Amino acid sequence: MNTIYILWLRQVKKYFRSRSRIVGSLGQPILFLVAFGFGFGSIYQKAGGGSYIQFLAPGVILMGVLFTAVFSGIELIWDRQFGFLKETMVAPVTRFEIMLGRTVGGATVATLQGLIVFVLTLIIGFRPHNLLLLPLAFVFVFLSALLFTSLGTAIASLLEDMQGFQLIMNFLVMPIFFLSGALFPLKGVPQVMEIIARADPLTYGIDGLRGALISTSSFGMINDFLVLAVVTISLLAIGSYLFEKIQV
Amino acid sequence: MINVVNLVKKFQDFVAVDNISFDVKKGEIFAFLGPNGAGKSTTIKMLTTLLKPTSGEITLNGNNPLKNKNGVRKSFGIVFQDPSLDDDLTAWENMYFHAVLYKIPKDIRNSRIRELLEFVELLDRKDDLVKTFSGGMKRRLEIARGLLHHPTILFLDEPTLGLDPQTRNHMWSYLQNVNKKEQMTIFFTTHYMEEAERIAQRIAIIDRGKIIAIGSSEELKKQTKTNSLEEAFLSLTGKQIREEEATGIDRLRIHRKMFRR
């Protein structure tokens, strides 16, 4: 338990110390909110969709979470060779504890990032429908953060160096975001796309978050929660299996 | 203290460590020398539970690394070839994390960290981030950290690489001191032959996965009829330069500076 706590604490401390990184990673969500939110706002309204900012905000919040989470998982590659992690590998603790502490730490950091983006959306004009459901929104943000940190960890356990990083960003993380229904409603899209979106875990995070923040959910929040929980647990299991097999 | 019998490590077809056996006694300072790619790091990794041997027996402080991982892990400290400190944490935090991982009781944690930081003369820098430290200071901190849980064996993988003679001298005088006082066994690798000659009580030379000579520096010189350990080493291992393929970690090393935020 202490091991998990100390590894968690490390991630959180490092996060608060890297101000430039916090600010830097907010650029993208802001750009999406402003360019898409205001750019498509009037068309969306005319098409009868209502306020686009309201629709977009949950997607952009989870975008911030997604990128931070995957990245902190992938950082494992680095840590394993040159970081503190190598030290933990020879310490009298189990690999599972190391993996769990690191993943929960990464997920916490990604959640904090999501909270900052949430505040930004409020500034731009987003208004949650029901403030009482905010704790539920938090659950969806944290669960998504945990899911994608585990995904990052699992991938990082398979890679030897950072060469594959761009590949993962462009062929995994970007598609996860763009094909998730973060930017457009999935109602009425071609069937192929709907199938892809349904296979994309982020879709359920966003759907659940929309349920909690703007009271519209296509799958139902309970279903969203169940899908996210099952995928997270499976990824954690896969991640810890792969992490166990890492040779330093 | 360390007992190795018929140790073998194969990576697919490549035999990295080829049936080696040796003993290191308690309180001994033992140098493990060899050209690049000879099998030094692979051996250290097997001794420190990071790699599983293909076959052979290892006993460390009475424990088998395969059967009793944690028993083995508690009994040694290690300083890796590449720095393994967290640059974004302070010296104190790096030490504190180690203390938690090794389950050093709460009531003695702080006093012991303080004592060791003082020992390596870093106490006045305890609240500074490690990224502001020089290479020598980082090494000292790593040594302090390696000693924090009072190990009976200390592994050092090329600990003096890139350090100036002053720091090197300083470092070894600390370590020799601990070695005498606590009877701590030291197992180290180096490419500096004069260092091995001066510090180590016994030396093993490994090449192409096999131990080709073992003994005190005097014995090795006598055996090869040479005047210095460097000459003895070259006479045993030949003058040919060893080429190593770049691995993932070498590529990472190249990008190291760039990636740092």
Description:
The complex is a heterodimer of chains A (248) and B (261). Chain A has 248 residues and is mainly α. Chain A has one domain (2-245). Chain A is 79% helix and 0% strand. Chain A is built from twelve helices and no strands. Chain A has helices spanning 2-17, 19-24, 27-46, 52-74, 76-82, 84-89, 95-124, 134-158, 165-178, 191-199, 201-214, 221-245. In chain A, helix 4 (52-74) runs antiparallel to helix 7 (95-124). The longest helix of chain A is centred in the middle third of the chain and has 30 residues, at 95-124. In chain A, 48% of the residues are buried. Chain B is of the alpha/beta class. Chain B has one domain: P-loop containing nucleotide triphosphate hydrolases (Rossmann fold, 3-Layer(aba) Sandwich), CATH 3.40.50. Helices cover 41% and strands 22% of the residues of chain B. Chain B has a six-stranded mixed beta sheet with strand order 5-6-7-3-8-9, with helices on both faces. A three-stranded antiparallel beta sheet of chain B has the order 2-1-4, with helices on one face. In chain B, helix 6 (165-182) links the parallel strand 6 (153-157) and strand 7. In chain B, helix 4 runs antiparallel to helix 5 (135-147). In chain B, 40% of the residues are buried. The mean pLDDT of chain B is 90.
